[in-house]
Amino acid sequence: MQKSSLHRNFTDIVFSVSNGVAFVVIDRPERMNAFRNETMTEIVVALEIAATDPEVGVIVLTGAGNRAFCAGGDVEWEANGGLEDRKGDDAIRRVYAAMREGNKPIIARVNGYAIGGGNHLAYMCDFTIASDDAIFGQNGPRVASPAEGWIVSYLVRVLGAKRAREMWMLCRRYPASQMLEWGLVNAVVPQEDLDEEVQRWCEELLALSPTALKTIRASFEDEYAALRDRQDKRNFLAEVNPSFFDSGEHAEGAGAFLEKRRPEFQRWR
Q1: Where are the domains of the chain?
Q2: What is the pTM of this model?
Q3: How far apart are CA 4 and CA 18, in angstroms?
């Protein structure tokens, strides 16, 4: 039995290592595990620790409680300017860079809602295992939160062009069973069996050659590196609408969400 260790120097996540598995748990259940800058910064630190820990062979990313894996960007944080200076966007990209560069398999353990940035996290992981009550979907156009670049376009690799556009542009909600059929999810089990199923996948991965897994993973990462590198050099929001945050459109989307009303976007068409 390998030692189990719990790292307590975080505010938004819980990070622990046990039996070769690093657990990164977004610990904001009162906000449905929605992230802010602090959350993403702590996830990056945790992933970097896991990447350099020789005891860790697999990383599990999940959310606290059963209501949500992650509800994406905290809309209240966004409404208070969390995205306006691109620090929020840069923090999101640092999370994905840490996921890629650590070169250890990452499993998304999806319990409840995986919406917006939470859905990004689920489909960017190597594997996604969901409870049968999990719900997936995007939220950007609904709340005027402008995701862009390869974070968006990578979903085409996962689902195909038509389904990726449907998910991103219509902001529908999809049950785990449909996401299993579409290919976003690897396995769906009852909520009470989720931990056991995740453990089974971890044990299978831990029994394999770590070097072979890293080599394979690096090969997959390289497959879309050219797309990622090209799109990272562009600011799509500035190209489409450089005055977006000053126009009131973002404020309308975030405000409507917080006020639980339907947004009125017609004036910006």
Answers
A1: 4-191+219-228
A2: 0.89
A3: 4
